[in-house]
Design brief:
The protein is α/β, with parallel strands linked by helices. It is built from 6 helices and 9 strands, in the order H-E-E-H-H-E-H-E-E-E-E-H-E-H-E. Helix 4 links the parallel strand 3 and strand 4.
Length: 178
């Protein structure tokens, strides 16, 4: 399947979570076995080309895509978690949201100094979570210079925020608007 075929599998839900938003829902993509497999294969090809040593995914949908790519390539998967989910001492980072803040955490013992880690997630929008994940993983000693996404919403500027951190960004498909 091509990225255009995959794009056709993404459901658009108007006015969610608030009026004026066009929500790009991956549920229909992952519910299509061939489409999901093709998405993982395309992301895995890019991961191989980048010579990744591990893959990080942010909770929750980054777990779906990142863990599947990691398993297909027999690479370690590093979960970037919401607060209070890891049973060991963690590194954490607070970051700004549109209305408030949030926190991400990682188990620093799972990351090796200098390890080449690629972030994989379902979608890049404003980039708040992804930039926080890059900073967090780097603080744990990882080398993070690439991020892969199934979907980019370029009008929201998230990919540019990552590029400002010297992270190469690639997405299989993009959608205009928000």
């Amino acid at each position: 399947m091509t990225p255009a075929d995959l794009k056709a599998l993404i459901r658009t839900v108007p006015d969610f979570p608030k009026p004026g938003i066009l929500f790009r829902d991956i549920t229909t993509l992952i519910a299509d076995g061939a489409g999901f497999a093709a998405t993982i294969d395309l992301l895995a090809d890019q991961t191989l080309a980048a010579k990744a040593e591990a893959i990080a995914g942010m909770e929750a949908r980054g777990f779906i895509f990142g863990a599947a790519v990691a398993a297909s390539l027999a690479l370690p998967f590093l979960p970037v978690r919401k607060p209070g989910k890891l049973p060991v001492p963690v590194l954490s980072i607070d970051y700004a949201l549109e209305y408030g803040t949030d926190t991400l955490e990682v188990d620093p013992s799972a990351i090796h100094t200098g390890q080449r880690v690629i972030i994989i997630d379902d979608l890049i929008a404003t980039g708040g979570t992804a930039t926080a994940a890059v900073r967090l993983l780097r603080s744990a000693g990882a080398q993070v210079d690439q991020a892969l996404f199934a979907i980019d919403l370029p009008d929201l500027g998230g990919a540019e925020r990552l590029r400002a951190l010297d992270v190469r960004v690639s997405a299989l498909m993009d959608f205009p608007g928000h």
